[in-house]
Design brief:
6 helices; seven-stranded mixed β-sheet; 170 residues; Rossmann fold; binds adenosine monophosphate; 29% helix; single chain; alpha/beta
Amino acid sequence: MKELYNLIRDIPDFPKKGIIFKDITPLLKDEKAFEKVIKILADNIPDSTKKIAAIESRGFIFAGALAFLLKKGFIPIRKTGKLPYKTINYTYQLEYGTDTIEIHSDAIEKGEKVVIIDDLLATGGTAYAAAKLVEKCGGVVEKIVFLIELSALNGEEKLKDYQIFSLLKL
Ligand code: AMP
């Protein structure tokens, strides 16, 4: 596992001052590490899951591979204005202002079990919004799965109503 941690690169002050950005590209370009990550994440997705939903854009990298491997459907959750068909949206609070994410209105069957994937859990606001969006669409959030969790930011508390799994805790 140590080698996976070593492939996460800290970029200070990106995209703005005071943020230490966790750059996952060294891990992604290492085929053995990427395969290992996908296999571990796959082991943490229940068999009963029908769809894998992910938040753009880095969530897509993992969700596409997992959906293929586990033979499940993939659902994109995107920032407002990107999805072409009828959408359902959810607006959530950021530190300054708000953000809106969307899903296609026909993405999920009523009662369908969905796992949400993202690359990183920080405050949990994004994943919480994605979970609410899946529920608004009629789905049941079975689990929320992350590659990285920034434990100090306590995103786990924000997501306390959900089962979560994070592979790497920083
Ligand atoms: P949050 O809503 O605070 O949990 O933020 C999570 C979302 O923001 C994820 O989609 C991450 O890709 C991105 N993010 C937040 N903080 C960082 C960070 N330090 N490094 C890389 N991505 C981050």
